[in-house]
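User: Hey, my collaborator sent me this sequence without any context and asked if I could get a structure. I don't really work with proteins. Can you help?
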Amino acid sequence: MDKQLTLALAGNPNSGKTTMYNALTGARQRVGNYPGVTVEHREGDARHNGQDLTIVDLPGTYSLTAYTPEELVARDYIVERRPHAVVNIVDATSLERNLYLSLQFMELGVPVVIALNMMDAVRKQGKEIDTALLSKLLGLPVVETVARTGDGKHALLEEAIRFSGEKQGQWEPLTISYGPDLDPVIHQMETVIEKHDFLTGRAPSRWVAIKFLENDEQVVKMGARQDAETTATLTKMTEDVARHCRSTLKISPESLIADYRYGYIASLMKEGVVRAVRPQARLQLSDQLDKVLTQQFMGPAIMIGILYTIFYATFTLGEIPMGWVENFFSWFSGLATSILPEGMLQSMVVDGIIGGVGGVLGFVPLIMVMFMMIAFLEDSGYMARMAYMMDRVMRAFGLHGSSVMPFIVSGGIAGGCAVPGVMATRTLRSPKEKLATVLTAPFMCCGAKVPVIILISAAFFDNSASVMFWTVIGGWVAALLVAKLLRSTVIKGESTPFVMELPPYRMPTLKGLLIHTWERAWSYIKKAGTVILGISILIWAMMTFPGLPETKVADYEAQRTTAESTLSAEGLEQRLSELNNLESQEALRYSVAGKIGTAMESVTQFAGFDWRTNIALVGGFAAKEVIVSTLGTAYSLGEVDAEETEGLSKRLAADPTWSVATAVALLVFVMLYAPCFVTVVVIARETSWKWATFSVVFNTGFAFALSVIAYQFTRAVMGG
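Assistant: No problem. I've predicted the 3D structure and written it out in structure-token form, which is a compact way to encode the shape of the chain:
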């Protein structure tokens, strides 16, 4: 037997596969991405009776016919990496449906070990499963498990190791009949495949033939690259039998294959695999809860309450550790200031590196709290109910019911963050619906936009709460309308049917929640922290260089000398502060960022934005919080903290270049323009740099057009 065995864990979504993976590997896990796709790749180590094991957690999938990235990844890993065995985690409470995937593994020929998971729930339902009989009928090891508690995990590893050694890497495909309409053509296709050695190094010839009949796009494309002529022959045979099936049976070959597979499974069940040992209750606990939690009117109200609780708890629980992180970076900044000599190096380290990285890492406690609660909703089974209730609304705009959670996480209730929101789109199975959600989730009111909204509302409006409410609602409206526009133009495609099994409610394990939370938080730290470091230095450089001309610096020095010789101590301090602020403002205008802001005025004036606002908005491309501090510097107030904006609000209100119309336009623009740089990078990782660039260009253009309309309309209504 090999020194290191590789076991691939596979199963339907919500089957307990990842819970079993965590039980087997604990903290000995590694997370990455499969080559070419954004689907996560998780590996862990285990040891059983002296045997070293590598355990791979494949993405949850219902089928091995590649319709989604998850199905493609799961199948490709098995076909190309050829693990020693596949451990198929089966939800024993829905045995017949779950065995559909098991049957496809058996047809492929890979050694399979069946883990009948959730056996505690089966017994609570008053049923028992004859595992010995099922094992005999399938010709595979079958082990009872309860992943949540770890019951059966050692027996599972024992059987997987034994079966791997018995098979010695040999694949033995299962052959089942698909009826008189398909069996003859499958046999003919097998003959063609074997004659031309067509993809036989990848998979059994019968399996390849069935994939052609199922219109498996990846297999057909792969075949065309290897042998276009044989591919054309097999495609012609597929088209002929498809016409025959539709004309005589009114069914497609794919559906006929699925029918025969389920028929095969049903024949096994008739042997007495599942037996009732006591009368089953009319309604299980999950059914009773769903009568309330998914009720037409009460369900959405409860969902809103739960979402608000998540928002409130995130900021309440995350506030204290966030303060610790902020205090640490404040102390670290002071330490660096005292150690480093005044000059460019000190400015870059303190203002650029420590300020930028500290600003990002300050969100980590909040991110971890939010991820833990999202993991709880996912593992408990409630997330599926949320998608179910929101599907009708989201589908009207070309989205999917599962799009609601990325929106909420991104700031659907003010205060979220688009970075984890974009990451949350991984739950969407349709690439086009995922893309539409990724591109519109940044329209939500993330926590970075909140200080800007507070600043503007305090300066120009009497009711800040009302402004906040309608700004958040405006983000939702814009996201849904843009999603509809994108799904009708550049991301055209049929809506994915909302087919989702509502899993039973379960109490998540603390270990599982902590592992999920740490994985996601560490991913955020690695991806966001490294990127924000670079962009912070870049923004610092743009707002620092080339600096004031020597003549200007000399002029300010002369004014300081004059003040020191003519003013009293109290007046001198005030005058020196004014000169420092004026010098900072002029230096900013001379900087690269200042010149960009001034150059943009010829266009941005139509939305009421002057050069100082333009600089702040340019800084906002890195992080929206930068808008407040940059406006403070630009308006001669020095560096303004995002939480202390009263003085800046008064200065904006008193500035003749500002008006209510300008404020409205700025709110519209800040809510909708390009996502922050970290979010753009995450969008690129989840989709591609093409779509990340599109989000920057389209969102900014869309935001500017609406802000111009808002500015001109408000001016007209208010009479100037």
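In plain terms: Residues 513-718 form one domain. You can pass these tokens on to your collaborator as they are.
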